[in-house]
Structures are given as structure tokens and as C-alpha cells.
Task: inverse folding
């Protein structure tokens, strides 16, 4: 939103392609049945939307970009379930990628039981209309999202039983102290904690097993060395976030340390392609907005305006670095899986089949881990944490796409050359 | 990586091909070796004898069906003709009506990377030593490795597929690029490997880019969709024009196919020779032997290739003559080929 708004305000012709049906991304988009943005994480949402609406930005909501048929061209497919909708061919002079992040899931026995959810996943389902009132929920994993989502769930009437952060105090403490110097973030953090007062919050605490038959019945935690079982209806698990770099990677942008490489002005290693926000490294909402602004201004040629924002971004970058250090995953999490615990849910690949694979590519080829419909978005991050795999090559389409869309016929004339015969 | 090159890129169709007598001999011999090996293959190889149906769209192609049938029968192989109704019953998602087809029941499919891993494991069981490295040159009993090491050997076999000319300069092997699509799971949507009879015309025209209808049911319920052939394309990127043509071609045969969800598209390079036959056997360098140039039949003919080469090296009689595949056929122009 920030990138599109800034570029449009600078007089550029801007199109915004968003794979969500509603604007605002994971955090701001409106709950089902509501037309206003979700402002539970601050008023910035309404401000940016208003600003966007005053521009001539052309919005495509509910469309996913899945391939680059040629440089400067993209193919997008509607997320509506209408199999006859045609793919759209989009061309651009400059492209800004703001593909966000996803949760990191880590396998543990029972994690594939129904009602074991992602932290952001449960929040998204709540926005989608899942009734949560009176449900007993345990939230576990790592990162600031745990508290934020706990607050949302509690507000919606959910009974949040426990919040478990895997990181030890020595990692969290410097981060918490650093918030003192950042009143905005501190207030937000305190706000979330106030909203979840009465909910036990443990650090050094992580899920070791989910129990149940047809759905989760209880979760077993390792809480500061003690085994603790809590009966619950849902467990929301998320081990911090992973940048969504697939599209950037498909377009040829260099990826390092799981993030898209950009310069100060958010320029990727591919000419005229920019990237802003979480794909360049997990840093949260504020820095993502600022990077959006910088990329929008730069793409519009307003270099000096962009430059004026760099200093603020640099101080925020320090927050990102602290975030990264604070929520680094502990080694014990690598040992949660039993041999039979599924790591890849799409292809039913157990931990034992992956243990001795020498590389991610070998794992993919010989076990088909990461080759299913999620294309490794879930198990890829888990496997790289569990087994130290690197190298994540991306093949088109970046998301599953209808075959008809893949074959979008920008280039139909070729048929005349190759298909000499017609079926009667 | 074992099975990481063309093995990973290909379909894994074990198919008897009757382009030439020599091709038929090699592919049907190799197919029989696969079928003997089948009980030993681990389940992840996903060997399934699903059969091939060569699909005929019109009467002209039905004539080809009958010619093919006679060819198979006269060589002791079996095949059966499907009429229009039988074809529709066998493959409900094909366009109706089509003229018919030829069902070759002995054809099979497998998952090549795991088959390769199994074969390596067997080799290791027989005390083979593996070195994971890249050979930068190989001649006169010496293999130079990228890492800097050298291996001395009495016998060197160049089996590097489309890359083989890099190790054996002057080799008549060219890259022939192909595209494949794999879908999400649709169990039962396709039941046999389905190949258009036009494939013979399109796949074997040497000069031009071509596409053909060729779909395969995977054990997972996924569908592999092919195929394309391009010369001179060195870039491994997906060619949108070829992809679109391939999909359009498939849609002519399976009208609902475009509504299915695709998970991945990729490309690979076949190792093509001028006469569509592989290069198997000795070269002018006494230490260098070849096992390359199998084009689209590398998985099918791998076992027979290995057997023929081993028979040659060990001076054993072989089940079929090696002569048509000898690399020397290109260096000695006077030789008249039996199949030409």
C-alpha cells in the first residue's frame, strides 16, 4: 500500500496486484463482512488506505502472480474458484515486490492433527469467520506475533490458556530492554500484554507433542524443563516468520540468508525490480511500511525524497536485527520429531526419510519432500532448520496455477508452426 | 547427485519404440530387463505396468495403429487394438469420439530418481566406489576431476548424457530440450500412458521445434504432461511459447485438462544423436567407452545399455547385437547400417 501510494502520488501509473481478496495484507485486511480495515494494530491502517484511495492506483484484489513468461511480463490468476476465468498478462517498466512473510512451522509429534494451527493461521481464520468464543487455546512458538494474536483471540472471546515462547530469557531480555528506547513499540507490546493479562506467559517453553484422535485434545509442553499437559481445543503454533522470496527468486533476484538482497533504495539485483518489507528480512510492520515508501519513491524517480527516509529506516533496521537475535530458535526444537513424524504434509514424508539426505534437492528428488501443492512453503523452512539444507530453487508456477493459465496464449501464433494437424 | 540430471527431468516411461528395428530391439530388450527387475525394486521407485495407449485421431492414424500392431506381433511382442468405444472406456477423459488406439500392456512407468538411487545402491553392494565430483576431461586412461584430483582407469565410460561431448570432443550428441508439467493429484484421471500417434511424426522430425500430446499417470495420482522437443535451446528456462503450444496440444486430446491445477513446470535436455540411436561401446581411445545419446529413451534403455556394455567388456555373448549402437558408425562413413 505504501509503495503504490508513494509511487502514484509521484505521478506514476501504478497497478497493485494483491493475492488477498481484500486490501491490507495479513495484518490490516478487514475481517469477513466488514468493509473497514482491521485497526486493532494501530490507526495507520485507515490513514494509508485513505491515502491510497486518493490516488489513481488500479487495484487487482484476489489475483496471484504465478509466472514470468518473458522479462517485464507477469501472469496472474484469479483466486476465485471459477476455472474459466482467464489469466491476466501484466507488463511493467518497474516492479515492486511486497510479498510479505509466512509462519515457520516446526514438526512435532501430533502437529498434523486437526486444530493444530498456525498462529497467524488461526488469526486469519478468525478474520474469515471461524467462531472462537469459548474455545480453549494454547499459543506456542516464537516471536512477537504470539502476544499480538493472543490479544486478538482473547478479544474475540477465545479462552487463551497459555502463551509459550521458546526463546530463553538471555535472548529475550536485551530485546525487551531495547523497547524502552522505542515508546511506540513498547506501548504496543504493553497493550498486547494488558489485553492478555491473566494468561500465563512462559519463556523457555515449547510444544513437544499434540495428543488426540480426530482432533487435538491436549498439548504437552516442555515448560522450563518440566513436562506440562494442557487440555485444549486449539493450539496455535508459529516459530517466527519466514520471508516469502519465491516470486523474487523466480524473477532472478539474488537471495541470501533466506531474504531478498536489496540496496538502500530497495533495489534488488535485477534491474527495475524492487522489494520491500518482510521478503528482505523480517522486521515487522513499521519498517515494512517505510521500505514500501522508499521503494515507491525510488521507482518513481524521487531519489532525494527516498533518501530522506533512509536514516529512519536504518534505526528500524537495528530493531529487525534485535528481533532476529531475540527469537533465534533453540537446538532442542530440532529434536522434537519422532522418526515417523511427518515433515512434508503434502507428500507424507516422515522425518526418518529426510534425516540422511545430503541436500534439499536430493531430499526433494528422492523423497518428494516439498514437491506437493504447497511447493515446500511449509516444510522447506522446517527442513532447512532441522537439517541445515540450503539452496531453494524455484520453478514456475510460484503458486499452483490452472494449466489453462500456464498456457496463456500470449504466443498463440506458435501453434500454427508446431501443430500442423488438427483433430477432426 | 544421483539421478539429478536428465534422470530427474524425464518422465520415466518404459516404452517399446518401433522407429527402427534397432530401436525396437534395444527398447524391448530393456523393457524385459525392467520387468524382470520389477519385483526387486523398492516401492519408492513406483514401478507400475500401466501400459501405453497410442492414440489415433482419424482413419489414417488407425492405419498406423494396425501397422504398429503387425510390427509388434511379428517380433513376438503383444499389443491390442482399441476401437473408438474401447478407447473411450479405457480413458474417459479423452475427447470423444477418437478413432481408437493401440494398447501395449507391457509398457510401464517408474520414478527415475529413486530407480537411479536403487541401482547405485546395488552397485555399492558390489563394492563400487563412488566419488561425487565433476569430470573435466577423460582420455587415455585418465579422468581429470574438477576438484583437482585424477583417476587412472583402464576403462572409462562416458555416460554424461547431453553433456557427453564436453568429455568426448566431436561426439555427435546434441542437446534436445524438453518441457514437462506436473499436476496436483487427480487419481484415475489418466490410467495409461497416453501418446498421440502424431508423436512419431513430430518427435522424429529433426529440424524443427515440436510438441506432442503425451501424458502419464503417476503413482501419486498426479499427471505428467508432455512433451516438447527443441534443438539449439541451451537455456534451461521455461519457453512460454512452447509451453502454451504443449498445453494447447494436450487440450485437443483432453479437453478438461486445462482446468486442472499445475504444480510445476520444468525443462531438461535429452542427448540426441543424428540417427536416433544411442552410442554404446568402444571408441578409438582404447580406454574410453560410451553409453550416451539415448535421447528420450534413456530410462527405458538404461538396463539394456548397461548389459550390452558389460557383455562387450567381459567378452560375453549378448542377447541382441551391439553393432547398431557402436559409436564407430559415425567415424567410419562407409559402414552401412542394418536399420538405415
Result:
Amino acid at each position: 500500500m505504501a509503495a503504490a501510494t508513494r509511487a502514484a502520488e509521484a505521478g506514476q501509473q501504478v497497478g497493485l496486484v494483491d493475492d488477498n481478496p481484500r486490501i491490507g495484507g495479513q495484518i490490516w485486511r478487514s475481517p469477513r463482512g466488514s468493509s473497514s480495515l482491521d485497526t486493532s494494530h494501530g490507526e495507520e491502517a485507515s490513514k494509508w488506505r485513505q491515502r491510497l484511495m486518493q490516488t489513481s492506483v488500479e487495484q487487482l484484489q484476489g489475483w496471484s502472480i504465478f509466472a514470468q513468461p518473458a522479462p517485464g511480463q507477469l501472469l496472474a490468476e484469479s483466486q476465485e474458484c471459477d476455472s474459466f476465468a482467464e489469466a491476466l498478462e501484466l507488463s511493467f517498466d518497474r516492479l515492486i515486490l511486497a510479498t510479505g512473510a509466512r509462519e515457520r512451522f516446526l514438526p512435532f509429534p501430533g502437529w498434523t492433527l486437526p486444530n493444530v494451527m498456525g498462529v497467524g493461521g488461526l488469526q486469519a481464520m478468525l478474520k474469515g469467520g471461524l467462531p472462537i468464543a469459548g474455545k480453549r487455546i494454547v499459543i506456542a512458538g516464537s516471536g512477537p506475533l504470539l502476544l499480538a494474536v493472543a490479544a486478538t483471540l482473547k478479544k474475540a472471546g477465545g479462552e487463551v490458556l497459555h502463551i509459550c515462547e521458546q526463546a530463553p530469557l538471555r535472548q529475550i531480555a536485551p530485546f525487551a530492554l531495547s523497547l524502552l528506547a522505542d515508546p511506540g513499540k513498547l506501548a504496543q507490546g504493553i497493550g498486547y500484554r494488558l489485553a492478555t493479562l491473566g494468561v500465563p506467559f512462559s519463556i523457555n517453553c515449547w510444544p513437544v507433542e499434540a495428543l488426540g484422535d480426530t482432533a487435538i485434545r491436549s498439548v504437552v509442553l516442555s515448560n522450563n524443563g518440566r513436562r506440562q499437559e494442557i487440555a485444549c481445543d486449539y493450539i496455535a503454533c508459529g516459530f517466527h516468520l519466514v520471508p516469502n522470496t519465491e516470486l523474487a527468486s523466480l524473477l532472478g533476484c539474488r537471495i541470501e540468508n533466506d531474504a531478498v538482497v536489496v540496496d538502500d533504495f530497495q533495489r534488488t539485483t535485477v534491474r527495475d525490480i524492487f522489494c520491500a518489507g518482510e521478503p528482505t528480512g523480517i522486521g515487522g510492520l513499521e519498517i515494512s511500511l517505510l521500505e514500501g515508501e522508499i521503494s515507491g519513491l525510488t521507482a518513481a524517480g524521487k531519489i532525494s525524497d527516498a533518501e530522506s527516509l533512509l536514516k529512519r529506516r536504518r534505526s528500524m533496521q537495528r530493531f529487525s536485527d534485535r528481533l532476529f537475535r531475540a527469537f533465534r530458535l533453540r537446538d532442542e526444537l530440532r529434536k522434537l520429531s519422532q522418526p515417523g513424524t511427518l515433515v512434508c504434509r503434502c507428500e507424507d514424508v516422515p522425518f526418518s526419510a529426510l534425516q540422511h539426505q545430503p541436500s534439499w534437492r536430493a531430499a526433494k528428488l528422492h523423497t518428494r519432500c516439498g514437491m506437493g501443492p504447497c511447493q515446500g512453503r511449509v516444510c522447506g523452512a522446517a527442513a532447512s532448520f532441522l537439517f541445515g539444507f540450503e539452496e531453494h530453487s524455484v520453478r514456475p508456477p510460484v503458486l499452483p496455477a490452472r494449466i489453462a493459465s500456464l498456457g496463456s496464449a500470449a504466443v498463440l501464433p506458435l501453434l500454427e508452426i508446431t501443430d500442423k494437424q488438427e483433430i477432426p | 547427485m544421483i539421478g539429478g540430471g536428465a534422470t530427474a527431468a524425464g518422465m520415466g516411461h518404459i516404452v517399446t519404440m518401433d522407429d527402427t528395428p534397432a530401436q525396437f530391439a534395444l527398447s524391448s530388450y530393456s523393457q524385459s530387463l525392467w520387468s524382470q527387475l520389477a519385483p526387486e525394486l523398492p516401492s519408492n521407485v513406483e514401478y507400475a505396468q500401466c501400459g501405453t495407449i497410442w492414440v489415433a485421431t482419424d482413419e489414417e492414424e488407425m492405419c498406423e495403429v494396425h501397422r504398429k500392431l503387425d510390427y509388434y506381433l511379428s517380433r513376438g511382442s503383444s499389443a491390442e487394438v482399441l476401437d473408438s468405444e474401447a478407447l473411450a472406456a479405457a480413458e474417459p477423459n479423452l475427447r470423444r469420439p477418437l478413432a481408437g488406439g493401440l494398447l501395449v500392456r507391457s509398457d510401464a512407468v517408474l520414478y527415475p530418481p529413486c530407480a537411479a538411487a536403487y541401482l547405485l545402491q546395488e552397485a555399492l553392494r558390489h563394492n563400487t566406489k563412488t566419488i561425487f565430483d565433476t569430470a573435466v576431461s577423460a582420455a587415455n586412461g585418465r579422468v581429470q576431476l574438477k576438484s583437482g584430483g585424477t583417476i587412472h582407469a583402464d576403462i572409462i565410460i562416458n555416460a554424461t548424457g547431453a553433456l557427453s561431448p564436453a568429455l568426448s570432443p566431436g561426439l555427435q550428441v546434441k542437446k534436445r530440450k524438453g518441457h514437462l508439467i506436473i499436476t496436483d493429484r487427480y487419481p484415475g484421471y489418466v490410467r495409461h500412458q497416453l501418446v498421440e500417434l502424431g508423436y512419431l511424426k513430430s518427435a522424429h522430425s529433426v529440424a524443427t521445434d515440436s510438441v506432442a500430446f503425451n501424458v502419464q499417470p503417476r503413482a501419486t495420482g498426479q499427471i505428467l504432461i508432455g512433451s516438447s522437443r527443441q534443438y539449439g535451446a541451451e537455456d534451461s528456462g521455461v519457453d512460454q511459447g512452447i509451453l502454451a503450444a504443449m498445453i494447447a496440444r494436450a487440450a485437443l486430446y483432453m479437453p478438461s485438462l486445462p482446468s486442472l491445477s499445475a504444480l510445476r513446470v520444468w525443462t531438461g535436455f535429452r542427448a540426441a544423436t543424428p540417427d536416433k540411436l544411442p552410442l554404446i561401446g568402444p571408441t578409438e581411445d582404447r580406454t574410453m567407452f560410451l553409453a550416451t545419446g539415448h535421447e528420450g529413451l534413456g530410462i527405458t534403455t538404461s538396463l539394456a545399455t548397461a548389459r550390452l556394455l558389460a557383455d562387450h567388456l567381459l567378452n560375453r555373448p549378448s542377447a541382441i547385437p551391439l553393432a547398431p549402437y557402436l559409436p564407430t558408425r559415425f567415424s567410419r562413413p562407409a559402414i552401412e547400417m542394418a536399420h538405415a
